[in-house]
Design goal:
With 260 residues, this protein is mainly beta. It folds into 2 domains: 48 residues, SH3 type barrels, CATH 2.30.30.370; 202 residues, Alpha-Beta Complex (Fumarylacetoacetate hydrolase, domain 2). 13% of the residues lie in helices and 40% in strands. The chain has 5 helices and 20 strands. The strands form 3 sheets. Strands 1, 2, 3, 4, 5, 6, 7, 8, 11, 12, 14 and 17 form a 12-stranded mixed sheet that branches. A 5-stranded mixed sheet has the order 9-20-19-15-16, with no helix packed on it. A 3-stranded antiparallel sheet has the order 13-10-18. The longest helix is centred in the last third of the chain and has 9 residues. It is globular, with a radius of gyration of 18 Å. It starts with a strand and ends in a 7-residue tail after the last strand.
Length: 260
């Protein structure tokens, strides 16, 4: 089942996507997954928004075996993660702005876990499974030159528009062997499978939830496969994941009239 978040006029709502239609859910998608169905909308008449508004985005670095091999790095013994702010989130078909502070902004296509229930220090595997609402596409946009320059990654990962998310949450999906691809202007740049993950989604949730409380709507971005590279003004970047769909965004220079 695909769940999305939408806007029509001044109204915002969640809905279940079936082909070209959206069945509106009066409650949010976190209300114990018990839905009462209401209006039906044509998808083409709606603005597709980021599917959730997370309290935090936990992003994992160096989590694909083939990416570690590409970089000539040993496999990490435990997950390496960092935080991206909710202010960086944008939805599908929206614009990634290239900040003037960076000369080298890269795409990083990723599978994202969407948390559906509050979770802290789970004792049983079933708790982890039940805490997952579903999965969506994510682009961990990164100012690579700033990442290399700084001793930590916060600045390079946190610019507004650096967390494209969507288009929808797929709730019925086995995340352990999914094809994941990234395209720039229609050209394939990244191609791998989630079978290459060093730490799978269940391992990541257990590790992270033993450190911090996860809340409904929180995102865990599971890392990027090999092939990351630069974006430039005018590019179209697409993250495509089997069973979920395509997250498409447009790249532009930061508006000059916004610069001080």
């Amino acid at each position: 089942m695909k769940i999305g978040r939408f806007q029509k006029g001044e109204r915002f709502f969640f809905g279940i996507v079936i082909d070209s239609e959206v069945i509106e859910i009066p409650e949010t998608c976190f209300s114990d997954r018990v839905y009462s169905f209401n209006k039906v909308h044509e998808l083409k008449n709606l603005k597709v928004l980021p599917p959730v508004l997370p309290t935090k985005i936990i992003a994992v670095g160096l989590n694909y075996k083939d990416h570690a091999k590409e970089l000539g790095l040993p496999l990490p013994k435990e997950p390496i993660f960092f935080l991206k702010p909710p202010s960086a989130v944008i939805g599908p078909e929206e614009t990634i702005y290239l900040p003037p502070e960076s000369k080298e902004v890269h795409y990083e296509g990723e599978l994202a876990i969407v948390i559906g229930k509050k979770l802290y220090r789970p004792r049983f595997y079933k708790e982890i499974e039940e805490a997952i609402l579903g999965y969506t596409c994510f682009n961990d946009v990164t100012a690579r030159d700033l990442q290399i320059r700084d001793s930590q990654w916060s600045r390079s990962k946190s610019f507004d528009t650096f967390a494209p998310l969507g288009p929808f949450i797929e709730t019925k999906l086995d995340p352990l062997n999914l094809k994941i691809e990234t395209y720039v202007n229609g050209k394939l740049k990244q191609s791998s499978s989630t079978s290459e993950l060093i730490f799978n989604p269940f391992d990541l949730i257990k590790f992270i939830a033993n450190i911090m409380t996860l809340y409904p709507g929180d995102i865990i971005a599971t890392g990027t496969p090999p092939g990351v590279g630069p974006l430039k003004d005018g590019d179209v970047v697409e993250v495509k994941i089997e069973g979920i769909g395509i997250l498409r965004n447009y790249v532009k220079k930061f508006p000059e009239n916004e610069l001080l």
